[in-house]
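Deliverable D2.4 — example input (structure tokens):
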């Protein structure tokens, strides 16, 4: 599924159209027959990946308990326990990344925790860091030991050690520290 294309289409949809689509999607997510198909293939102790909307990425976890409407999982990185709905689990191994072209700006849909980025501070210095948090209007970026809040449009992805776009195209704008 090409999430980039779908999101581009949704940008041209009215708020009412989005709401109506949301209702239809919610009904599909709660469909008992679809949930049963997922429950039937999962087993306690199994390593799975689920989509974490706060980090906008897949997270590795181990199934601890299968419940009626949720699954108790343990995050394999930090050991935290989560009760997640069955539909969070990526049983089909779907690519969840939203691709960004060099002409697009970064937004909360196409960046995830752990991505490497670059931005300019208010003095024009290029700073390189890792996204550690996604907020509604800004991303939390760790540069060395300093945490920055940076508006999404000022961020440039670093792909394989190279900048995704020319850093000089970024407007000079004040970026604030936490």
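Example output (designed residues):
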């Amino acid at each position: 599924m090409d999430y980039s294309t779908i999101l581009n289409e949704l940008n041209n949809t009215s708020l009412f159209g989005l709401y109506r689509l949301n209702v239809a999607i919610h009904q599909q997510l709660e469909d008992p027959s679809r949930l049963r198909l997922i429950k039937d293939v999962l087993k306690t102790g199994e390593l799975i990946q689920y989509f974490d909307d706060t980090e906008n990425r897949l997270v590795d976890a181990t199934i601890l308990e299968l419940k009626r409407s949720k699954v108790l999982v343990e995050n394999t990185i930090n050991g935290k326990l989560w009760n997640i709905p069955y539909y969070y689990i990526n049983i089909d191994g779907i690519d969840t990344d939203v691709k960004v072209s060099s002409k697009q700006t970064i937004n909360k849909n196409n960046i995830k925790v752990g991505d490497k980025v670059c931005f300019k501070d208010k003095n024009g210095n290029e700073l390189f860091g890792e996204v550690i948090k996604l907020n509604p209007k800004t991303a939390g970026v760790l540069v060395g030991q300093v945490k920055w809040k940076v508006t999404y449009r000022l961020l440039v992805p670093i792909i394989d050690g190279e900048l995704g776009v020319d850093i000089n195209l970024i407007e000079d704008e004040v970026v604030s520290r936490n």
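The two ends are 37 Å apart (CA to CA).
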